[in-house]
Structure formats: structure tokens, C-alpha cells
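Subgroup meeting minutes
Present: P.N., E.W., G.H.
Scribe: E.W.

1. P.N. recapped why we're keeping a running log of single-chain structure predictions: easier to compare across weeks, and new members can see raw inputs and outputs side by side.
2. G.H. added today's entry (154 aa).
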Amino acid sequence: MKKVQQGFTLIELMIVVAIIGILAAIAIPAYQDYTQRAQIGEAFSMVSGAKTAIAEFAQTNGAYPSTAELTDLGIGGTVAGRYGSFDVGDGDGIITVTMGAAGVVGADIATQTVTFTPPQDLTVFTGTFDFACVSSAANKFLPKSCQTAAPAGP
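Output recorded in log:
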């Protein structure tokens, strides 16, 4: 008589556990990078209204708003989001976003900054009103529009 197999052998179970371990070792760091990209993405969405208000004010008045005028525009003081907060410079239109502390955001982007700088010479300004973006965070967490150029290789 043939004996019917009634379960998995120890070696089969060990192989399954090893495969799951390898997949977890690859997936967890990738997942952490994706969550940090989403967290820093909040910086770009929460400043969109401020960028529009500053651009409109500058094009209308020929200068960037002062602190008092920022308050009238509804963007005075520190504006906080879930993962960071931003301030607008007095009279220069520069928006600086500071990410939260570790624990609030991922450790790789904690306390990093993203700075949005409008055109500085409004007297010769023509065309689109673009804010230049610079960040202290690593390029892998930033959208393409804000990444610094990689150094040229040999």
C-alpha cells in the first residue's frame, strides 16, 4: 500500500520561511522610501496656494508682500501641515518648508528643508512665474522638478 502524504516536510517549511525573509528584507526599505516620498510631497501641495498668492501679488504690485501683507493674503506666520510647516520671507517671496522631527516623518527626511524661490528681479520679469526649488533632502525623495543635478562622471 502507498502511504498518502499528510503534510509538509521540515525542509519545505524552512524554504518557505527563507523566501519570505528575503522578500521582507527587500520590501521594507522600499516601502519606507515610498512613505517618505509621500511625506515630503506634502511640502509641494501645501505651498501651492501660497505660491499662487505671492505670484499674483508680485505681478500686480511689482514687489513681494511684506509680513503684514502676507497676513492679509492669509499666509502670514507659520503654516503647519501634517508632516511639516512653512514660512514665507518678509518682502522676498521665498517659501521655506521644514519637515517635522523623526517619528512624525521618516528619519531620512526629518528636519530637512525645501525652499521655493521666486524670480528675484521683477523689473525684467516676463513669461511664466516659476519658483526655483532647492532641498536639503536626498534626490530620491524629491520630485524631478526639485532634484539637484548629479555631478558629471568621468
